[in-house]
Amino acid sequence: MQGVMRGFIHGVDAVNYRLGRIVMYGIFVLMGVLLWSSISKTFFLPTLWTLEMAQFIMVGYYVLGGPYSMQMGDHVRMDLLYGGWSDRKKARVDLFTVLLLIFYLSVLIYGAISSTAYSLGYWKTEPISYLFGVVTGTEEIGRLEQSSSAWRPYMWPVKLVMLVGFFLMLLQCLSEFCKDVLRLKGQTI
């Protein structure tokens, strides 16, 4: 069982580490879009797409970078008490709080599945089976949702990024859960 846990930890950590290292350069893409927005507003006609594209890039940066941040321990935490605790006490508290985060992420994933299905034109009550059908080719994509802005981009790409990001965060939480279980057993990771 510990071998399976270690394999899961290493696999999830490797995926999130590599993706996080790539996504962290998205800040430069965001800076480029915002720089172009400033230049076009100052010297040319303002472009309609820049601010909404900056929002989409920021969503990807934040959501796909979250698992990397959690893996590195760089997320926000109240260290007032936590910093002075022993490793075993930290593992016990983390074990409890990661369960709460897993529940929260499960709710977010269900909402993201529904929202992604809606953006692909699904209006009924079974979004999970619909998305599975789209992936396998048994369901057709309906009328695609577009933003209400003047630019009117399709919404499914950003919603799909959110769904993938929430799922990777859930996997990272399960990895952290396994790490805490191994720490409580006195094992090294």
TrEMBL record:
Q: Which residues cross the membrane?
A: 20-37, 43-64, 95-113, 154-174
- Transport in keyword set: yes
Where's the Tripartite ATP-independent periplasmic transporters DctQ component domain? Answer: 30-181
Q: Does the keyword Nucleus apply?
A: no
Tell me where it resides.
Answer: Cell inner membrane
Membrane topology qualifier: Multi-pass membrane protein
User: What main location does UniProt list?
Assistant: membrane
Q: Which InterPro entries match?
A: DctQ, TRAP_DctQ
Q: Which Pfam families match?
A: DctQ
State the UniProt keywords alphabetically: Cell inner membrane, Cell membrane, Membrane, Transmembrane, Transmembrane helix, Transport
State the protein's purpose: Part of the tripartite ATP-independent periplasmic (TRAP) transport system.
**Which family does the similarity line name?**
Belongs to the TRAP transporter small permease family.
User: What assembly does the database describe for this protein?
Assistant: The complex comprises the extracytoplasmic solute receptor protein and the two transmembrane proteins.
Q: What is this protein called?
A: TRAP transporter small permease protein
